[in-house]
Amino acid sequence: MARRMGRIPLAWCLALSCWAGAWADTEDPFMQSPENITGARGIMGTLRCELRIHGEPPEVDWLRDGQTLQMADSTQIQLPLGEDWEDDWKVVSQLRIFSLKPADTGRYQCLVTLGGQTFMSQPGYVGLEGLPYFLKEPEDKAVAANVPFNLSCQAQGPPEPVNLLWLQDAVPLIPTTGHDPQHSLYVPGLNKTSSFSCEAHNAKGITTSRTATITVLPQRPQDLHVVSSQPTEMEVAWTPGLSGIYPLTHCTLQAVLSDDVAGDQLGAPEPPEEPLTLQASVPPYQLQLGKLHPHSLYHIRVSCASSQGSSPWTHWHPVETPEGVPLGPPENVSAMRNGSQALVRWQEPTVPLQGTLLGYRLAYRSQDTPEVLMDVGLKREMTLELRGDGPVTNLTVSVAAYTAAGDGPWSLPVPLEPWRPVSEPPAPAFSWPWWYALLGAIVAAVCVLILAMFLVHRRKKETRYGEVFEPTVERGELVVRYRVRKSYSRRTNEAILNSLGISEELKEKLRDVMVDRHKVALGKTLGEGEFGAVMEGQLNQDDSVLKVAVKTMKIAICTRSELEDFLSEAVCMKEFDHPNVMRLIGVCFQGSEREGFPEPVVILPFMKHGDLHSFLLYSRLGDQPVFLPTQMLVKFMADIASGMEYLSTKRFIHRDLAARNCMLNENMSVCVADFGLSKKIYNGDYYRQGRIAKMPVKWIAIESLADRVYTSKSDVWSFGVTMWEIATRGQTPYPGVENSEIYDYLRQGNRLKQPVDCLDGLYALMFRCWELNPRERPSFTELREDLENTLKALPPAQEPDEILYVNMDEGGGHTEPLGAAGGAEPPAQPDPKDSCSCLTAAEVHPAGRYVLCPSTSPGPSLPADRRAPAPPGQEDGA
Fold first, then answer.
1. CA 877 – CA 870 distance, rounded (Å)
2. Highest-confidence range of 93-107, 217-231, 427-441, by mean pLDDT?
3. Per the CATH hierarchy, to which homologous superfamily does domain 218-320 belong?
4. Residue 247 contacts by C-beta under 8 Å, 6 or more apart in sequence?
5. Angle between helices 760-768 and 712-727 (to 10 degrees)
6. Residue 498 pLDDT more than 90?
7. Could you tell me the fold of the domain covering 331-415?
8. Chain mean position to CA 337
9. Concatenated DSSP letters for 790-825?
10. Which DSSP string do the residues of 251-299 spell out, in sequence order?
């Protein structure tokens, strides 16, 4: 029976003549209390309370261990008890636990307050009991033969204790006794590849872990050394390591020049992109390296392989090839006689020296004298003294270069030639043309210096819109001369601003926003709808041409108030500075044949990949569908939340947040766009109610539908619908529900269903955005933090074979509303069976929503038994 926490005074009931109040004071309202639940981890459980209430049914709260559950997934249904008791109600409150875990265990009770009294149901107990649950399982490893290693396994209940039993190749190894499970297994070494697993035992039964494969690889080779070395080749040998029962099949050796590698913190080089790699059959364990550079430092390493895989590489071992003799003789040897002397000259050999050049040797001989050998060092000329003044017959000269390894080949003998002096007039230090060039350069430099000083003197102060120069006195009065910037056509824009009749304060702010219409060149139409169009354009700046998107409005601004609202929001947008918020470049006006004010033209950055809604639709229904991984979708949501957080801090209400109004830039980051700049530009997703302008009813918060009041919390509601759009890859919200029925549908407690492959945490976050009370909805700061934490918790996404880009340069389509740049709505949705030419029956997504080509890879999804059910009232709704 329920415990009464208070009592209504009897005098109240007598004064009110309320016999029902007296009944409530004495009767226990609880017809059924929660029942006990005991189950295994991961099951879903439901607790139920039934009450009989006279009068307006109250709210039923749930307690766990005496504490109120704040975020409980509870539903409450109230049913009339009969026609004779019109004010008697049967209230049923249910609490669902989707996936039972240790934190959910405890004592559960229902609590209700009636007439100032608090009643509490009998407790129901939720317990967790089942087979052991693994916290850590053995992992695959590759180990060297006969080298010790450890494996880890850990499990828990309840019930406790949990004992572990290790198995090698399905054979028990070490039975565990007592209450101290052996979490770590020490293996002294293996000589063959084996499998390991562990069994967890408790009172409920046995759970077996995954099977880990331990691959036995050869040990690292040892004693890598040089057997013999020549200038261009080298023979190396090594000792192989143990490989278990698997014989070695081959060894691989790599050699790199030390100049081609960078040393790491241990002094061993990192290999270049393409090291010299050679493979050797074994035995013997040696290899001949050829085509090496002489007198060069190399680093070598070796690895041996068996049928199970390759051993670790040895550490890099430095080796050096010895020097060699020069491969060729000196070039252009000449010998000329000058009286009693002979001048011999030569040039350095052009062929490789194979070492460090130490000098040259010279040899000469004649018919009457023996050969004379001389070491002339590094000089490349030598003067020989000839004996006597008589003729020297048949004198020949040869030269050779030498290194530490020895002499290179000798040049061919060169005969002595008679002296032929050649007189060459000395070249003048300077010629007249150089004087002319130098004089012209000096004159030009002086002119540039004078001009620069003049400009610096004139430029005293620069303002936001032009340059104000130092006042001068003319006719006894101070005069300030003003010169506008080149990018601002003062005459044209000033005339337009003056003709609008707006306030001077707004006019002053607009001077930094207005752009000369003649500097904007329009190109092809990217998208066009009932109320406006977006065209590709170019904005001519001082030094460059910027590719932009130009939004034109087909609707007329009829009143000065509408025009001032439009221009005030343009000034506000100009100040936005956030990577996830579309920034306004400028606004200009163009003449219009319609009555009223000039037609405003909005200039925005060009977004190559269009709007987010088109991107999502093309990924699912395009000619080549591509599955978007959950990581990318969560990144899109986090970008939008970050941009909306910035707008909310600026006290700016978007009013029209949806996937179609979010743009993708070249880095695939999402930018929030279309924030209230043109409130009348809407598309078919909007519903016209009476004489009220079209509204995006499927995105608007329920309080905005009722009272047409917008706050930052109403933007949070729209953000939740946008999250649902992203999670469903561009589906239309509330399918099957007409626009005119949305308000009543939401008022009945219905909400959007959880998408089939949406994570439970993501759906819980978007469901919080649809709370009936706006104050209970999260802020954009909370949403951004939760989404960023969710993104960090997800595993890294695999790189797809190809990435889908919705490139609007390849042809525009019809779209409405018009995004900031580059986007158009896709054409009519094709049949998924026709959208991929490589489709087979096995390639259709289980949910029937995605068409996958063989080149795509599926992203993460949840099994059916782990998806959260729809919130109450949605079983038959959208």
1. 10
2. 217-231
3. Immunoglobulins (2.60.40.10)
4. 306
5. 150
6. no
7. Immunoglobulin-like (2.60.40)
8. 79
9. HHHHSPPPPPPSS-----GGG-----SS--SSS---
10. EEEEEEEGGGSEE-TTSPEEP-SS-EEEEEESSS-EEEE-SPPTT-EEE
**Which segment, 285-294, 335-344, 429-438, 806-815, is predicted with the most confidence on average?**
285-294
Q: Which helix (H) or strand (E) holds 468?
A: strand 466-468
Three-state SS for 725? helix
Burial class, 574, CB count within 10 angstroms (exposed 0-12 / middle 13-18 / buried 19+): middle
Whether 656 is a known active-site residue: answer yes
Q: Count CB atoms within 10 A of the CB of residue 65.
A: 10
Place of tokens 């009286």: 339
Which residue, among 38, 91, 52, 47, has the nearest Cα to 69 in the 3D structure?
A: 47
Q: Which residue has the tokens 């019930």?
A: 159
Q: Where in the chain do CATH 3.30.200.20 domains reside? A: 460-606
Among 703-717, 764-778, 845-859, name the most confident range: 764-778
The residue behind tokens 């004489």 is 691
As a whole number of angstroms, the distance between CA 656 and CA 704 comes to: 12
The percent of residues in the chain predicted with pLDDT above 90, rounded, is 33
Please give the sequence-ordered ranges of beta strands (E in DSSP) within 669-768, or none if there are none: 670-672
| 125 pLDDT above the threshold of 80 | yes
C-alpha gyration radius of the chain: 44
CA distance 692 to 685: 15
CATH code for the structural domain at 613-680+698-878: 1.10.510.10
pLDDT confidence tier of residue 459, bands split at 50, 70 and 90: low
460-606: CATH architecture: 2-Layer Sandwich (3.30)
The CATH architecture assigned to 3-128 reads: Sandwich (2.60)
Which residue is it, tokens 């004089």?
A: 439
Query: Does residue 816 register a pLDDT over 70?
Result: no
Stated as kind and residue range, the H or E segment containing 206 is strand 205-208
Buried b (16+ CB within 10 A) or exposed e, 251-275: bbbbbbbbebbeeeeeeebebeeeb
- Once rounded to an integer, what is the mean pLDDT over residues 725-740? 92
Amino acid at 435: W
Of 112-121, 236-245, 484-493, 861-870, the one with minimum mean pLDDT is: 861-870
**Three-point CA angle 754, 757, 760, nearest 5°:** 55
Backbone conformation region of residue 181, classed left if phi is above 0, alpha if psi is from -120 to 50, else beta: beta
Q: Give the mean model confidence (pLDDT) for residues 299-325.
A: 93
| Rounded Cα distance, 632 and 523, in Å | 32
Which of the following is catalytic: 611, 656, 715, 757?
656
CB atoms within 10 A of CB 524: 11
What local confidence, expressed as pLDDT, does residue 315 receive?
93
> Is CATH 3.90.1150.10 correct for 133-216?
no
Q: Is pTM, for the whole model, over 0.70?
A: no
Structure tokens at 39: 């189950």
- Going by C-alpha positions, the residue among 383, 387, 382 that lies closest to residue 370 is 387
pLDDT per residue as tens digits for the range 464-489:
334 443 444 444 444 444 343 444 44
Residues of the chain with CATH 2.60.40.10: 3-128, 133-216, 218-320, 331-415
Find which of 301-315, 323-337, 403-417, 573-587 is predicted with most confidence, using mean pLDDT: 301-315
3-class secondary structure, 639: helix
Closest to 710 in 3D by CA, of 673, 657, 784: 657
In the numeric block, which tokens belong to residue 599?
């037609």
Both structure tokens of 147: 């080298």
- Phi/psi of residue 156, each to 5°? -145, 165
| Segments of the chain assigned to CATH 1.10.510.10 | 613-680+698-878
Whole-angstrom Cα distance, residue 97 to residue 105? 10
The residue type of 82 is G
